[in-house]
Structures
1.
Amino acid sequence: MKLPVVFILITVMLDAMGIGLIMPIMPSLIREVQGGDLANAALWGGVLSTVFAVMQFLFSPVLGNLSDYLGRRPVMLVSLAVMALDYLVMAIAGSIWLLLLGRVVGGITAATHTTATAYMADISEPSKKAANFGLVGAAFGVGFVLGPILGGVLGGFGTRAPFYAAAILSGANFLLGLFVMRETVTDVIRRPFYWRRANPLGAFRAVSSLPGVRELLWVYFLYSVALYVYPAIWSYFTEARFGWSPQVIGLSLALFGLTMALVQGVLIRIVLHRFGEARTVLLGLGADFLAFGMLTVVTSGAVALLLTPVAALGAVVAPAIQAMMSRAVPDNQQGELLGVVNSVHALSMIVSPLMMASVFSAFAGADARFYLPGAPFALSMLLLLLAAAIFIHSIRAKTVP
């Protein structure tokens, strides 16, 4: 594998690790700088997570458009340098407001995922884009697994240790990129930067005007909202339904992240070769529909774990959809497209936790009229059905590439 590709995959992995790395120590850190009890810390934790996702939503199109104009290399390297400095600031933060500022900056710089994916699109042949986007997804999955594990270990050395580790990793990756990353945006495909297209709504209008892209963006959004039922309510659902401990919950999430990485890094190439992109999307949606249906009513923790590989099969959806959209967009608009895709993904991270947590509370609370902790998975099934209906209609109408 070429060094620039290795650098891109490490960058995406660190994006995912940066989120999970600090999760184990956030409750203690928030109480350390703010005081109060665990409930208050959870409230501030929710604020910090939401701010992070909102910044990703707002700035992903900005960085995507900038990378179409300035090039992938400067946008990527500057973002990594700022990310390393941001982790250092959070490591010494003595107030909740400085932590909040850190999450604002972190959400902006985490939009490097946009530029990384655009870079991968630049260097991929059209027929290999879905498989290479799968590598990006696999790198994210590995980071999702390693982050909480490493964060828990480093948390034993103090609440600031994970931030110092994240800063070192980001800085080292910046140095790697400085030496190995070559520019892929040439004068032939360079596109002027316009602020009216760099905001999420302007970028969405510009990209969605291309044939078939609007429908695929809706499918991607509905799929992402449905899939985020896992991080949104899994901890609460498994404790309520199976009585799992935090350790078992952590291991189950690690298993999910690992199987997703295997699906996107290895299995997707076989599936794409055999079924093609459109059928791969439908296969993934169907696998998640089946898994979520069983999780809605399952009462055995062992069965829930066995369903993990089935749910992970749905990970083929995102790379296949991204490849279909990438082919529909000119070379000089790849960064803008991936910026919009990342914004849609960030929007799902804002919408899904609120929606899924509300449904869980309504059906798993002490005063619930009908006790069904798996109700959020039933909602996800409906969202997947809607996504599949839009996708099938688009294929029949021949509006998607």
2.
Amino acid sequence: MHLITITHLFYMLIPISIVAYVYFLWTQNIKEIVLATFRMLTQLLIIGYCLTFIFNNNHVILGFVIILFMIGASSFIALRNIEKRNLKVYYEILLSIAIGGSFNLLLVLYFVLDLHPFYQPRFIIPLAGMIYANSMNAISLVAERFENEIKNKTYPQARANAFKASLIPQINSFLAVGLVSLPGMMTGQILSGIDPIIAVRYQIVVMAMVLGSAGMSSIIYLYQQGKKYGISN
């Protein structure tokens, strides 16, 4: 695989700088995008070293702790765009991401990949990251939309609109894949020399678990909201 040097990597700061400049001109606020870029760089560098350690040390407990941290952190971030933030809402989001995401993760690990031995950090950690991050994004969309819709609509109407909104990114990806875009995982595998047919199979798994985790997490969240309105389905 072609090695990207640190010097060449900095070229990608050019488009980010252009976006940050226009962002400042139009919004008079540059802190958010600068902070986001700084966190992205810092977090990825740290996780790079952490993953190297994790991959070289097959500690099941450590892997379990990391997955719990992913669930907790993604649930906290999902609260960002919600007006009513409290422990009860956090618990609802946590439960939705934990159940919806973990079901898809176990399905992929146990039945699709059929790993032997089961605990292999090189597979589990990246897949868990994709699944829980995807569930987080779906919950962010469904929670924000439901919160706005329920103000002037019935629960079934608010639920339908919120659920539909939460799946727009995944459905668009399904429709565009292979025609408009080659997804990140597939592109990465092809660039690393993997046979495109094999890369396609892995991408199908990823696409399915992305829609599955997003949809199931949203369903569980909306189900919990329905109980507040005396509706159980």
3.
Amino acid sequence: MVLTLLPPPGAPRALAAAQLSNSVGDGAFYVCSALYFAQIVGLSAAQIGLGLTLAWAIGSVAGVPLGHLADQRGARGTAVVLALLTATAVASFLFIRSYAPFLIAAAAYATAQCGLAAARQALLAGLVDKDARTGVMARLQSTLNAGLALGAGLGGLALHAGTRAAFLGVFALDAVAFLICALVLARLPKLPPVTAAESASADGAAGAASGASAADGADRFAVLRDRPYALVSLLNAVLLLRLPLLSLALPLWIPARTDAPDWTVSALFVLNTAAVMLFQVRTARFVTDLASATRAVRTSGAVMLVSCAVFALSAAALPARAALAVLLVGAALQVAGEMRHSAGAWQISFDLAPADRIGQYQGFFGTGVPAARTAGPLLVTALLVTWGVPGWFVLGGIFLAAGCAMGPAVRRAEAAVARREFATVR
């Protein structure tokens, strides 16, 4: 089983090694960081929440120009530099004792992370054949979940100790993990940057497709003129509102609205992580082109609706074991929808992006993650914690609508790609 989850030898396996390294560090960091800044540094929950919201908002804006930088300067070198900057940002947390430095370090961390994600996608696109990208991404996602689970276990040891030294050890671990990530990425083959002539040609084609006139030379914001791709990215961001369900919504929902055992949240997390590790690759095998990708996303929206309905059912007056069983069924449906959405989104994001602007387009598509992290907590708490059972059905309806809308949006974007290619040939 382990061998089937590993990417093929060469660049894909090296990318997986880099992913494993930084995800172990991040898993420990995510578990411990909030408590460290609250209990050790003395920041309030409101300060931490606002700081992280601002940080990820800045990071999402920076994703496009940093992705463009990967296109223009070379994906490998840009990824290495951004991994080193992420390590530096994490290491700076070791010395933070007040709010202002926390804001600066958090913004630097989020910016470097968003840029690194775009650069690594561009690196993957340059080193992996087009037909194999979704399968490799599935294996990288499995690796990511394995690393996060391992890191969360290490972070749990630090939480059990509860000392400043233990928390600082976690930050040091995360910084070292990103240094290792940088070293692994530096050993990959070097990719040539996009030339100015190629960029100018792509700009002219994009302008013909969107009706906007392209500027001479390289345009680091060409993706912002590609309205069909922007719509696809927006729908993907809506579907990513599932991200706060496991980390925020259910931990608040379960003790307030159900009689399930206290350890239910941990069980749901383990179920999610294990399912992605074991079945993401298998799920992605059925996604091979834009048609199968849009079907996967549409199915994901429907499955997420059913999942939300099952979670709503857990609020009925059920015994503890029955409530636990209902929540486990809801979580199983949720992760099934998650895996289908992920596989479809990877295929769509790569296939609709110009070959010479992968980094820029991936940087824009990737803003859905920080956007969901920024807006998602506000939405899910308003719908689920405040409104209750009806909120689950509203949220499920949102998932279903976004999943069904993805097909027409992708067809519109695909037509824009065809017009770009026709304009380039002419």
4.
Amino acid sequence: MTELTSWRPGAARTTIEDFIARATSGPDALDPADRIAVFDNDGTLWTEKPVPTQLQWLVAQWADAARDDPELAGTQPYAAALAGDLRWIGNAVDAHAAGDDTDLRLLLGAVVHVTAGMSVDRYGELVADFYATAEHPVLRTPYSATVYQPMVELIAVLRSHGFACYVVSAGERDFMRPMTEVNYDIPAERVVGSAMGLEYVDGEVRYVDALAFFDDGPEKPVRIWSRIGRRPAVAVGNSDGDREMLEYTLPGAAGLRLLVHHDDTTGRGDEPYDRGAEAMLAEAADRDVTVVSVRDDWDTVFPA
């Protein structure tokens, strides 16, 4: 299978190739309807360090809002955005992990407030404009150049063998849709992610000032079933938040579970990347999860 040209020969590539051969021919071949592959996005299909891409966009919106409204400038996360100091945001996430959601509620409130009352069409235009001009803060390249070439190849190979490929991510659904079509050839209707609440007003679908759901952890299988109606045969993630999605694949040899391990030093600044994946890395063998080493299994990380 020469299409995985950015993958080095080794256990991970062999596992993928053997699975595809087994799933598409011979006595154990999957019914075409069962050839479903789901992929996390941030950290799995493209870079998410030093900050997730959507957070970069949100910080710019908060800073603009703070400049327009002095009262906002004295509150969080607007003050942090205006100062260009994101430590408050990181501390809010850490506090949540420790059981204190006080600052996280402020953060989520600011997230949904950005789009409240906006039409989905207008939001799509703003996001598309962002992707057209924004650069990765460390690599200083357009975000389209920070997708992971080996994963793009994997999606293409699976598609060529009759797999329907979906993005299933904690990332916000409508923020991902413009980039998944361009970068992965995965259409908007196959993007499953966190979502703002919606309402229909005067001929338009608009966002409300609330989060409908956060698509991470155990929510991922729920959203997979509600949107696809089948267990996936392939699931690919990179963090502990993907555990349940990997668990939800077809059992045994009928399923392929991959965990991308960022043991390299590419494109993230000084941010350690094993953080948030410790449990899955420790449990991978027991859970029949194949760990994909970015350092050892990928010959090329980003598109040439």
